[in-house]
Fold tRNA (guanine-N(1)-)-methyltransferase.
Amino acid sequence: MPSFDVLTVLPGLFSGFLTEGVIGRAIKSGKVSVKIHNLRDFTTDKHRVVDDVPYGGGPGMVLKPEPIFRAFDHICEERGKKPHVILTEPWGETFTQEKAVELSKKENILIICGRYEGVDERVKAIVDEEISIGNYVLTGGELPGMVIMDAVIRLMPGVLGCRDSLEADSFSDRGLMGYPNYTRPAEYRGMKVPKVLLSGHHKKIELWRKEKSIERTYLKNSELIKKLLKEKRFSKEEERIVREVIRKFSDKVKRTNDGNRSV
């Protein structure tokens, strides 16, 4: 069974995440194992101190190496092998769907949740990769840890009831954004569902969805579309759609880019 171990100073933050929704069901049904470890359990002083002031001075506190290494040794012994170790860091590699797919193939993953001003640099000796979920700073690495687990666990066999949901995910198909979705009623407050989706014509619906996916992606990330086109990553049908989308929206994309450069 695939497993996650999470090392944190705030284990209570994970209680709802691990018991609700898709993740809760995956754990309950035994499709994945998740164990939360309180870093304070691996201290040796009566006050259970996990942080200290940085050498050389400066603001904030730094997570001490000793409890982290003790926890790591304990988890390795418990699992019978060294897990793949992730440290959540604001300056780490930005998390992507591609990375989620890569991690979903790992048997054991340990997530060390950074906090305060980070961890003692010597902890990096046991870390396989540092991951960030975006270019901003949070109060700790617990939320990024949940984001990583959510994205990875849902990719594991049997976790999602409908495998087609994975195939249709935004960004899963060459990085293209998802197409618009609608449900009943067919009209609401004057806003109507596109006629093609009511037609029952599956080929036309498929083409419309491809067009909207490519259109959305081009308007948000025109360079990705150009890159995929250059690499010949589109079918002939898709290439026709791409060139039509570029023809229709190139002026709009240019104005947007020029506006961003002028700021």
